[in-house]
Amino acid sequence: MGGCWSQTKDQFDNLEKHTQWGIDFVEKYTKFVKERSEIELNYARQIRNLSKKYQPKKKEEDDNKYTWCRAFHSTLNELNDYAGQHELIAENMTSQIIAELMRYAQEIKTERKAHFHDGRKAQQQVEASWKQLESCKRKFERDCKEADRAQQYFEKLDADINVTKADVEKARQQAQMRHQMASDSKNEYSSCLQKFNQEQNEHYYTIIPNIFQKIQAMEEKRIERMGESLKTFAEVDRQILPIIGKCLDGITQVAESIEPKNDSSQVIESYKSGFEPPGDVEFEDYGQAMKRTVSETSLTNSRSDNKADRSSKGKSKTLWPFIKKNKPKMHCLRSLRRGSLYYNKEIMKRTLGRPTYAFEARQYVVSGSNPEDFSHLPPEQRRKKLQAKIDDINKDIQKEMDQRDALTKMKEVYVKNPQMGDPNSVDPRLAEIAHNIEKLQAEAQKFEGWLAEVEGRMPVKSDPLKRTSVLYETQNSTPPTNNNCAQDRESSPDGSYTEEPSSEVQSKVQPETAESGDEFDDADEEMLPTIGTCKALYPFEGANEGTISVVEGELLYVIEEDKGDGWTRIRRNEEEEGYVPTSYVEVFLDSNAKGAITYI
């Protein structure tokens, strides 16, 4: 009997170890899926950071005109979507596998504990019944032995003639009492034996099999859940494959949309200079009396003419590039290293038809501060820069006019309804806007004159801002002999001079020169910082240029507060910004904002 109990106990111990190993495996698999989810999340984060790192900056937006640049930017966007799919893998693994397995692990631990608790309880109960049976058996054995000794003692006294009758009677009663006790112990032992046999049968044929069946069902369910988790693990990856395939197909399509010929044509259009090819270099015959007869288009003609002109004014100390003192020498362009200072000087001399100063050539090659009229650029590039500058000035003029119209309407409202405001309070701002418009129109007229010069349309002589540039004069032109013009040309770092009939006009335009000279370069700077937020109180349709439409209740960013003109500059996103009436929005400025920058 003890062997059966020991065998049953060993079975429980083995099952307990096996089920614990199964639970540990579930937790191990859960940890594996969790680490896989973290890998997917980190991979997606790295892909997003990579895509964001190589996204075009605002100052690089001009690159989108090339098909290969647009293809690369589209590839970055597709990679962003690709990263989103890997984030979806991590999210689905967390919600569909990790969370479910963690919950199931807790459930199976509780169920396992209950099953083995019932098994131990049944084992303890049958062992207790066996101990009780053993106790009853020993008592019955002891009582039987006592009854036999009492019977033998009674028979011995009854046979002895010397013993009194009272002693015999006492021994007889003692023997009867022992027999009765033995009979009671027998009945108790029989009852315990019957009870134990019943409990033992129930233990080995009912309780223990049921517990084993429950443990078996628990293990089968655990194995089934593991299979379902592995299937879900594969399905999570399979679900995103079509979308990833679309992302890769998108990259393939944009790669196939690249047009090399179109891109090269745009490069040629962007960087063509408009220069005419230089004429042939004439042969210099040193055998004759230093009297050279060369063509009007040769390099030496321009050099000798300018040298004679400069020596007549007593300023012949400046040495021209490529000319050694008392030893004239021509340099072949092929022998010069492309990109060097001397190469660029020679190109300027050959193409512009006149020698240049070393300072001018250096500015042409390494221009720290470019001239306002972009005279350092080739004709075609100069024309594009001037046209872009004129367009920017016209936009500013239109914005000022819109502000003027808005203030005029506001003044009319104040005139009709004095309780809303003083009409005279608008006059200073109107005068300021009128002055700004006048300055912008003068600046636009100045740049239009330079543009007309580049395009071959000479400006009207009565134009107070007439500018005649000698940087692009024809090679057969006669060098000017006017001393004032020569002095202006020598003192001008960009190799050009300006006729200034009126000092008043010069003083009026001069303050704008330093600011407008870098305006084109600043167009690619970063966007204005936000100084607060605002909420639209009423809908507004921005029909005019420079304004932006808003809907009631919309939240936007403030980048420039009202400067007294009744307009506030706001931004919706990186591409949409403009002005709205201040009365149409409720502004919330940041406490640490230093103020917005106003461009007038």
From TrEMBL:
The keyword Coiled coil applies. Residues 474-486, 493-510 have a biased composition (Polar residues). It comes from the Eukaryota. Residues 295-318, 474-522 are annotated as: Disordered. Residues 376-453 form the REM-1 domain. The keyword Membrane applies. GO terms for biological process: endocytosis; signal transduction. It holds the Pfam family SH3_1. One of its GO terms (cellular component) is cell cortex. Keywords: Cell membrane, Coiled coil, Cytoplasm, Cytoskeleton, Endocytosis, Lipid-binding, Membrane, SH3 domain. Belongs to the FNBP1 family. This is Formin-binding protein 1-like. It comes from Sinocyclocheilus anshuiensis.
